[in-house]
Design a protein that fits this description.
There is one protein chain. It contains 4 helices and 34 strands. With about 300 residues, it is of the alpha/beta class. It has 2 domains: about 1-95, 3-Layer(aba) Sandwich (Udp-n-acetylmuramoylalanyl-d-glutamate--2,6- Diaminopimelate Ligase, Chain: A, domain 1); about 110-290, Hexapeptide repeat proteins (UDP N-Acetylglucosamine Acyltransferase, domain 1), CATH 2.160.10. The chain has a 10-stranded mixed sheet. An 8-stranded parallel sheet has the order 7-10-13-18-21-24-27-30, with no helix packed on it. Strands 1-3-4-5-6-2 form a 6-stranded mixed sheet. Strand 16 and strand 17 form a beta hairpin. The radius of gyration is 23 Å and the shape is flat.
């Protein structure tokens, strides 16, 4: 998330009421999660295991719960609860806006696009040319939809990330201030759910086609010309490269990458990153030919045991 204007380190520290290490006028340009941070961004870290990763990331401002040596060219925000204060910043820069009509006045709709009855379209949504948005679709604030996009009934774009911190009093949600971006020529089936980014964008690439009842988690990036079948669940922060095919009831863990032109067969559990150009199957995931060989050998196991008994 980039701010509408540059802020200073002192101004940010004042918003969240915390101490800081660095010059008062140190520039702050935005805030992001660690996998998408850039120069000028704030990143938060609240566990010693990840201190080094945050301090040496591309972020130049680190919101941290311990005063540590500050790397050259960077600044620190010292907080007793970085998770809470990151949420404060999201709330400050991207507050929730209630709606008073089904299609907000700020929505921009391109030529020849059709919005069917009973849709909800939030603030600052952009819809390109020649799109069809079928009935009962909900599109949350700030979504960007390209040209020639079809979205079928009941789909939701822009729900909050499934991202929680476990506290003694219960689960505390990390607020989502990102967007959903749908590129040109994408088709999205009925009853799909595509969550917005925490601070960045969840992206569906040009020409990709999604079947019915698919879940796409926050900050996931799906490439061009991907084909994804029904009941697939894609976790947050996943990168799916171009021309990947994913068949039905596949599930992925978060933070992994699926290489270009990979094929993931139905009911596979994608437990790790996989390279492109191969076909995969099973849980944990393996190349399909290896997995099928294992199954063939398993079928021989009763005969092998019987032979062993005869030879005793």
């Amino acid at each position: 998330m980039k701010f509408s204007q540059p802020y200073t380190l002192k101004q940010i520290a004042t918003i969240i009421d915390c101490e800081f290490v660095g010059q008062d006028e140190f520039p702050v340009l935005g805030m992001n999660e660690i996998h998408v941070v850039e120069t000028g961004d704030i990143v938060f870290v609240d566990h010693p295991k990840y201190y080094d990763k945050a301090l040496h990331s591309a972020a130049t401002i680190v919101l941290i719960n311990k005063e540590v040596e500050c790397p050259e060219g960077k600044a620190l925000l010292i907080s007793d609860d970085p998770f809470r204060d990151f949420n404060k910043l999201t709330q400050f820069f991207k507050p929730f806006q209630s709606a008073n009509k089904s299609v907000a006045d700020s929505v921009k709709v391109g030529e020849n696009s059709v919005i069917q009855p009973n849709c909800f379209i939030g603030h600052n949504v952009t819809i390109g040319k020649n799109c069809i948005i079928h009935s009962n679709v909900s599109i949350y604030d700030d979504a960007v939809i390209g040209d020639n996009v079809v979205i079928h009934a009941g789909t939701v774009l822009g729900a909050s990330a499934f991202y929680y911190k476990n506290r003694p009093e219960g689960f505390d949600q990390l607020k989502s201030g990102g967007r959903v971006v749908i590129k040109d020529n994408v088709h999205i089936g009925a009853l799909c759910t595509i969550d917005k980014g925490v601070t960045g964008d969840t992206i569906i690439g040009e020409g990709s086609k999604l079947d019915n009842q698919i879940q796409v988690g926050h900050d996931t990036v799906i490439g061009k010309k991907c084909l994804i079948a029904s009941q697939t669940g894609i976790a947050g922060c996943v990168v799916i490269e171009d021309e990947v095919t994913i068949w039905g009831q596949v599930g992925t863990t978060s933070g992994i990458r699926i290489g270009a032109k990979a094929v993931i067969m139905g009911q596979t559990g994608v437990t790790k990153s996989v390279v492109g150009g191969k076909t995969y199957f099973g849980t944990p995931i393996e190349e399909s030919r290896n997995k099928l060989k294992e199954f063939a050998l398993l079928r021989q196991l009763p005969k092998i045991i019987e032979k062993l008994k005869e030879n005793q």
